[in-house]
Amino acid sequence: MNRINNRVAVVTGGAAGIGSAVCRFLARDGADVAIWDWNTDNAEAVAEEIRGYGRRAMICKVNVANQADVLAAAKKVHNELGPVGILVNNAAISPEKDFVEISEEDWDRVFDINLKGTFFCTQAVINDMIDNQWGRVVNISSSSAQSGARRMVHYAATKGGVIAFTKALAQEVAPLGITVNNVPPSTVYTDGLKSVESRFPNGLQGYVDSTIPVKRVGQPEDIANAVAFLASEDSGFITGVTLSVNGGRYML
Ligand SMILES: NC(=O)c1ccc[n+]([C@@H]2O[C@H](COP(=O)([O-])OP(=O)(O)OC[C@H]3O[C@@H](n4cnc5c(N)ncnc54)[C@H](O)[C@@H]3O)[C@@H](O)[C@H]2O)c1
């Protein structure tokens, strides 16, 4: 368990997958949590889990690529929960397509959500962190930006951008008490991976056996553990890093 002293956290894409585990772990460690997601079907269940830890929860229906949505949600969180201290930029889409088939529309959509959304959400809450001279921004990138990933050129390019964004912003805001780090997951067993499970020629376990030294898929909680540490009081001397959580698939 990490120490989080009653901070207010925003988790984008917090209603499902990795994001929902991050919400649980941040609440467990002492944060009130606002879930920002454009699909809120499952958000109330996550909010209940947050409240189960004795913390406040808020659900905001937000498309992170829409700046008006993001600004309205930031205002609501500030007014009702208090100044934001922790932001986890997790919402993303992960399209796959042969490179020659990627259209301008495909390219813009994944950049708007994965990279521009990260920009919008961070800019919307960072003044709260600056005012308090304390903040933690944790961006969820992807091992695809480290190792490359066939049929995901557009997606991998956004996640490479997220890593560069992390380092550049970390340099700028470090003197203000704000850290900015990123966690690139790999092969985490969420709905996205489940939906493509049948495409592995030797099954998912065959893929795992040949590519992941620890010989298992990741679970959302594996990523949430790393995020909760980087969001905690104890990680203040760590900034600009890429904390790979991937069972050893890509070592950097
Ligand atoms: N699962 C993996 O193996 C894996 C691997 C590498 C990177 N990642 C990254 O981890 C993060 C979470 O992945 P996941 O597998 O949990 O995904 P997921 O699809 O299970 O969940 C993503 C959540 O984000 C929300 N979301 C998507 N676009 C949004 C938008 N425009 N505005 C608001 N909410 C939006 C979805 O509604 C959903 O709740 C993503 O950044 C993804 O790129 C995942």
Description:
It is built from nine helices and six strands. It is an alpha/beta fold. It has one domain (8-186, 220-235): Rossmann fold. Helix 1 (17-29) links the parallel strand 1 and strand 2. The chain is globular, with a radius of gyration of 17 Å. The structure holds nicotinamide-adenine-dinucleotide (NAD). Nicotinamide-adenine-dinucleotide binds next to helix 1, helix 4 and helix 7. Nicotinamide-adenine-dinucleotide (NAD) binds next to helix 1, helix 4 and helix 7.
Salient structural properties:
252 residues, alpha/beta, Rossmann fold, 9 helices, 13% strand
Give the arrangement of secondary structure elements:
Blueprint (H helix, E strand, L loop, with lengths): L7 E5 L4 H13 L2 E6 L5 H10 L4 E5 L5 H14 L3 E6 L14 H29 L2 E6 L3 H4 L5 H21 L4 E6 L7 H5 L7 H9 L8 H11 L22
Parallel strand pairs: 1-2, 1-4, 2-3, 4-5, 5-6
Helix pairs in contact: 1-2, 1-9, 3-4, 4-6
Bound molecules: nicotinamide-adenine-dinucleotide.
CATH homologous superfamily heading: NAD(P)-binding Rossmann-like Domain
Mean pLDDT: 97
Q: What is the CATH class designation? A: Alpha Beta
Question: Helix share of residues?
Answer: 40-55%
Biggest beta-sheet profile? 6 strands, parallel
Give me the count of strands: 6
- First CA to last CA: what distance? 25 Å
Shape, per Cα inertia axes? globular
Count of domains = 1
How much β-strand is present in the residues?
5-15%
Radius of gyration: 17 Å
Q: And the CATH topology?
A: Rossmann fold
Any guess at the CATH architecture? 3-Layer(aba) Sandwich
Q: What small-molecule ligands were found?
A: nicotinamide-adenine-dinucleotide
Low-confidence stretches: none
Total helix count? 9
Q: What structural class do you assign from the helix and strand content?
A: alpha/beta
Main β-sheet, spatial strand arrangement: 3-2-1-4-5-6
Question: Order of SSEs, N→C?
Answer: EHEHEHEHEHHEHHH
